[in-house]
Model the fold of this input.
Amino acid sequence: MSDRDGRTAQRGRSAPRHWPRADEHVAILDGAQTSLLTITVPPSKRKDRPALIAYALEARLAREVDQEHVTIVADTAASAGANPDARQLAVLVAGTARLRQVCAQFDTLQRPLHRAVSIFECLAASPECWQLASGDGRSAALRTGTGSAIAFDLPQRNDGGDTGGHGQADDDGRVEAIAAMLDFALRDAGSPPQRIELAFTPALPAECCDTLAHRTGVALQPLGFDAVWARSAQAHTLLHGGFAPKVGVGASLWTTLRWPALAAGTALALAGIAMAAGVLADRGEAARLA
Done:
C-alpha cells in the first residue's frame, strides 16, 4: 500500500478478499508481459502515425501487430539519417488479450484498475548503475545504461516440501540464470557499470550476490522493492484507448469510499497475476479467477 508519491504505507501478503481498501489500484506488468522498444518513424500527421508505428514494429514482434497494445513513452528527434525530420519513439508493447485479462480479473474482484504500468519504466538505469528486478522470483527484468530492457525467466524454486524453505540447488540455478544474462548484457554494453542494483522479492541471499559480483566483476547492491513501486507513480499507464478506466458517478463514489492510498500490484507472467498492495494471491485463488 503506497501513497500517491509512491511512499510505502504498509505491506503484506494475503488472498484478494483480505486486501485493504484503496483509492486506486495499479498493476505492474513484468518484463515477460511487456516489451520496451525503440523505433524510428518518418514525420507524419497525427492520424497517420499509428499505421507508421505498426509498420515499424512488424519485424520486431512475434505476434501480429494488431494483437498488441502500444504505448508511446518517449518521442525525440531521430539520430542523423536520411530524413532529418524523422522521430525516434520509445514504445511499450503489451499483448491486447493479456491486458484485457488483467483488467477483467481486477474487475472480478470489484477493484477496477486505475493504472497498469510496465516494470521496465519502474527501473532507473544509467551508464554507472543498472537495475535488475524480480517481483516473484520467477522472471526478472533488467535495465541497462544504454536503455536496453531485457526480460528473462528464472528457474522455478522448490516449494520446500516437508523440509521447508528453498535449497542450495534453487539458489545455484537462479545465480546461473542471472549471471548468464548479465554476462550477455555486459558484453553488449561495452563499458560496464560501476554497480548493478538488485530489487528482488524475495531478496537474493547475500552469498548469491557475492557470487554474482565475482562472476561479473561488477559490484552488486541490494535494493528494496519499494523503490520499484515508488517509480510506478511516474510511469506511463498502459490503460488508454479502449482500456481507459471508466469515469463517472459510480467511479467517483468508489473513490470517495476508499482509503486515500495507492495499492501497488505486480502482474507476473509465470505466476498468473499478482495483485495490489504487493499482495500476491495464492495459487488456488489466482487459478479460480483466471
